[in-house]
Amino acid sequence: MNDFTDSSRERALAEVLRTHPAVADAAVIESTDGRRLSARIVPDPGAAPMLHRSAALEAAGRLGDLSWHEPASGVRVAGFNRSETDFLHREIFAENAYFRHGITLPPGAVVVDVGANIGMFTLCAALHSPGARVIAVEPVAELAEAVALNAELHGVDATLLCGALGRAEGETEFTFYPNNSVMSGRFADASEDLAVLKGYLLTGQNAEKGAQLDRLVADRMRAEHRRVRVTTLACLADELGLGHIDLLKIDVEKAEAEVLEGVGEALWPRIEQIVMEVHDTDGRLDTVLKELRSRGFEVAHEQDPRLLLTPCHNVYARRPEAAAGRALEAASASPFDGGPTQRELEQELRELIARSLPSAVPPDRFAVVADLAVVDGQPAAPGAVPDLADGSRTAILARIWAGLFGAEAVQPDADFFDLGGDSLTAVRLLAEIEAELGEGALAPDLIFTDSTFGALAAAMETDPLPGRAVS
Amino acid sequence: MPTSTAVGAVPDTGSLSALAQALLDTASLTRVMPERVRVAPVEPFPGDGTSSAQALLDRLTGALGLPEVEMVPEPGPLSAAELAVSRRLALRPPDSAADEDQLEDVARQVLTAFPGRPIVVPAYDGSPLRCWAAGPEDAPAVAVVSACGMPVGLASNWLAALSSSYRVVTWESRGLFAGDDGSGLSELVGHSLDVQGDDLLAVLDGFGIPRAHAMGLCGGAAIALAATARSDRITSMSLWHGDYELGDEAPKTAHQRDVESLLAMVARGRQQAAGMHRLMSRPATLEALRQDIAHYLIHPYATSELLYRYGLLNGAIMSTDCRPLLTAGQPTLVVTSAKDTTAHPAGSEFIAAHLPRAELRSMPEGDHLTAFDAGSELVDLAREFLRDVTTEDRKGT
User: Fold this and answer.
1) How large is the ipTM?
2) pTM for the full model?
3) Which residue of A has its CA nearest to B35?
4) How deeply is A172 buried, as exposed, middle or buried, from its count of CB atoms within 10 A (0-12, 13-18, 19+)?
5) Chain A, chain B: beta-carbon pairs less than 8 Å apart
């Protein structure tokens, strides 16, 4: 038996939630069938500034087709594909792939991030160099939106150019792989890129095999072709008045030599450090190394063991006379200081309820909102139940999953497609989830980007608005 | 809603004529996809075979007036629709240069081969309808009402089988097919079942046909039913493996329920359709389709815009209650099979039991898609029924 009547139960839970320092306001709402509770949390701007800002940005309609991803403790970013956000965070923050071989950042550094993707390196540079000015260059509009959103979320001084850098100004064809955005580029070549992706997926602890590999590759290599504006680094530096560049980072999927050709004689001496990914085809690595040495840089290069079957190498170049800045250590304390992530706050709130109201059933779901009176951008009627704020999503997914594939298939690593799921099975899964959680409760894309039960359940639990997730 | 898992043969003659036919047969896809369609060969070409094959494809598409396709060495990155085109083209190294000398002639022959180029007829609301006609103009008329969103190729077996004795006409669903002139999709003005039923009557008007037998296949059965209930110009009907919404009167298969869910989701808006389209573009989608006709079956799933419109059009067909239409007193043949796991045979049984003048034929064999194959047993059945119901027409001509 519950100690509370229905109405007082929700009030009491909300009162407990409000005692948490990271909670400015809270409400607990019962679903229409009376079976589930959901909590709506307004984050405190002082104790949970990152969550507070993200709720405000989302309320302003800025999230669009992006989703909030939380790849590590204290880290919340707007991303495009969850698996790519995890990859980028691991590479840039956890493994410190760029700040090696003497590459450092002075305070107030001027950094040009060419091929910014969702801005993970932009954040890394800015958060490690107080007062840094970052110029982020990203040709894919959707990804550029993420860069802008992430810079705003984390208070980074970033100037965004939505376009490409090359040897001359103009326009170019550009291939965008929506399910594999990190390989998008001007010189995308289906067979080459396929080989690189296969090489990556075949290497390492989590090597993919057989049909799973073929499916992953096919899904990830679906391409969209666009035209994008091109400028040169020299023009960009002139336009923005960059007297010098402390660090030029280039990750542009085979267009790296073109970016260097657009530096211009006047700018070369004003670049202190370069870190770049080089695709070593047709001797490009040697060419780039020679070019950098001839420009007065000390150079080093290495290849990630997971990329041994690919032509991808990282090149590190610094001028011998460059002042040593702050060296960054892999896996050092997180530079993010915006308070808890949603996942962390939810965990703390569950523990708080367990301590304060041990006999109460905690809410099934917690949503972070900017204003309790607004649901999904619309004013909420008093007592109205938000469409997407019902139920324990993992439990609902487990029940539906078992109905489709059998109870024994409810395993974290059980894969939707390996279990025999096809497009119409996916439709049935979506329809049944919608019947429980309302329209748009799950984006169809998630079924093939996060196709295991565990990943799908995690995505549904973590994402405040999973229906917005687009890959 | 035509879908199946049976596997058929892939043509691979390698001849120029076969390649030209295959390009024309997949034109509904290549005309409507926003990017140049990529195609992969059956096996990677040796040496510089890819570039010479690309040159041949460019010449052939040019001669046929079709959008160019882009040859890629491997099928890995292709979408389901692109794979469907690739499999239909079954590209192998060109036979010989001599063959290419005949290219213009081959293109002309293929373009004029049965069923020929479409004639565009305006619907009552002005929507352009791509129509085909075959058979003697003075013979009794049969209007083949194919499944929603299916290219004419899927109905061509019936056109061929009946056009020796009948004036056979058909058309492709409104708003789902691009014109031959590169103008893209026309606007989708209306999408209700009644509007689609009126399209049948507009097609008859376009060819100056006063009255006709309506032959409804799959979802086309509901359209034929709607037109027949509204107009006595439809003098008889045959309904083949029909898919009907009948409330609680008849069960539906899991496949029918899944497709209904899909159509309801994508019809909510273009954004929802785009999300579902990304899922349906997985190459694995193709494996659930009968291989020899997969390039037809996948058409309404080929782009997010098509999928959105398909949600509206086929959604209307699958969700409009057919019970009020069962007043039509025209003689009707209702054909189904207990082995149809796509459209539940109970729907056909209910229709046959409640139409005033209907005869039910439950075939011992036949999955859903066999209705489109126009095998000899079904053709004999159709001819027998048509002979009975069109005798008067022949006497009058």
Assistant:
1) 0.76
2) 0.58
3) A225
4) middle
5) 86
